[in-house]
Design a protein that fits this description.
Layout lengths: L2 H8 L10 H13 L4 E6 L4 E2 L2 E2 L6 H6 L5 E5 L8 H21 L2 E5 L22 H4 L6 H17 L10 E3 L19 H18 L5 E5 L8 H4 L11 E5 L12 H18 L2 E7 L9 H11 L7 E4 L20 H9 L3 E2 L17
Parallel strand pairs: 1-4, 1-10, 1-11, 4-5, 5-6, 6-7, 7-8, 8-9, 9-10
Antiparallel strand pairs: 2-3
Length: about 375
């Protein structure tokens, strides 16, 4: 294969034409793997877990299966709205987390529970002093310069996170998630479609073109409030501004004891079908069942949904295991009632964990172990 042909494969539909070779390889290899597999992810998997925090070489998933999740979720929540000292600590801790995942061969995805930069409040609308900040942080808004400063912190982090090979670590960046709901200050009831898209366009262009961040894959992920492709794309910034399309969906997968797998599968298919049509990646960006009381949830609910309709999803990520709460967890730990079923989920050839991956950041992808 000629060098030119090889590079064209890796830049297919990626919105950053100057993305690093490792980022292009990750994009291409995720697309390739999604034809026959799905990577399993867990939010905050290595930072803390059920009853523990800050222990090296540990995750609840690893304690159960022997492998880390293939995808580790982190959060830029600590990069703003705090003292400079606390921000610096958060940056340093997350940097090491991302590097460690890269060194092991895993993948990092980044959520952003973004404290309201106009009110000084939290990321939930009710905690953000009900300030509609999206029109204020867009270009020419009253808090635009403050937003640029926050993005510079993210840009500096991205450009400082390097593996032992000296290469920048690729990350899937998923800003302004679940925007179709009203619980976050960037949610649909609190900003116009135009304001949302303007902020998205500025965020990508400022990071990519002004700050020179070239190790991000940009993911668009509403919650589950759509039933058609048109509704899914209602606030879509455009194919030139998105690398991955996804969905967060807890409601159709057992939340509060309510299941609507038919609806959940239909929505996942809308995501997968659009990705294939637009030559994008697709993912099930968040899901899970709190406390996992359903002993066969992993195989009879999640895996069954993922395998239906021959969808192409790069990964599925379940939410965090809180360190203090006895009930707020979404992945099993040793002795948890769904552990035997999770092991069946882990052993299924369709699901991939970190131990299954091989050279996912290399252009000459060698597949799986």
């Amino acid at each position: 294969m000629s060098l030119g042909l090889g590079l064209s494969l890796y830049s297919n539909a990626q919105i950053d034409k100057n993305a690093t070779r490792e980022t292009k390889a990750l994009y291409h290899n995720l697309k390739k793997l999604s034809k026959k597999h799905v990577l399993f992810g867990h939010q905050h998997a290595t930072e803390y877990g059920h009853g523990w925090s800050g222990e090296a070489d540990r995750s609840d998933v690893k304690s159960v299966t022997g492998s880390y999740p293939a995808v580790i979720g982190i959060d830029f929540m600590g990069f703003s709205g705090r003292s400079p000292e606390d921000i610096a600590k958060s940056v340093a801790t997350l940097r090491q987390n991302v590097i460690d995942t890269y060194q092991r061969g895993g993948v990092t995805t980044v959520a952003w529970h973004f404290s309201n930069p106009a009110s000084g409040g939290g990321f939930y609308w009710k905690d953000s002093i009900s300030v509609a900040a999206m029109p204020l942080i867009k270009p020419y808004g009253s808090h635009h310069e403050a937003y640029k400063e926050i993005l510079r912190t993210i840009g500096d982090f991205a450009k400082s996170t390097k593996g032992q090979d000296g290469k920048l670590v690729p990350m899937i960046f998923r800003p302004f998630h679940e925007f179709d709901g009203g619980w976050f200050w960037w949610g649909k009831p609190h900003c116009s479609r135009e304001d949302f898209m303007d902020v998205w366009h500025f965020t990508v262009s400022y990071l990519r073109d002004t700050l020179g961040v070239h190790n991000f894959i940009y993911a668009f992920s509403p919650d589950n409030k759509f039933t058609t492709e048109e509704m899914f794309l209602e606030r879509y910034p455009g194919d030139d501004w998105v690398d991955m399309v996804g969905m967060d969906n807890y409601g159709d997968f057992g939340r509060d004891g309510k299941y609507n797998l038919t609806a959940g599968i239909q929505k996942l298919k809308i995501v997968s079908d659009y990705a294939q049509k637009a030559h994008k990646l697709a993912a099930f960006t968040e899901t899970g069942l709190e406390s996992i009381p359903n002993t066969t949830w992993w195989t009879e609910t999640l895996l069954k949904a993922l395998k239906t309709e021959k969808m192409r999803l790069a990964y599925v990520l379940v939410w965090r295991n809180d360190t203090r709460s006895p009930t707020h967890y979404y992945a099993p730990y040793p002795g948890q009632v769904s552990e035997p079923d999770f092991l069946k989920f882990y052993q299924d050839p369709y699901t991939l964990f970190e131990n299954d991956l091989r050279k996912i950041y290399k252009k000459k992808f060698l597949g799986l172990f």
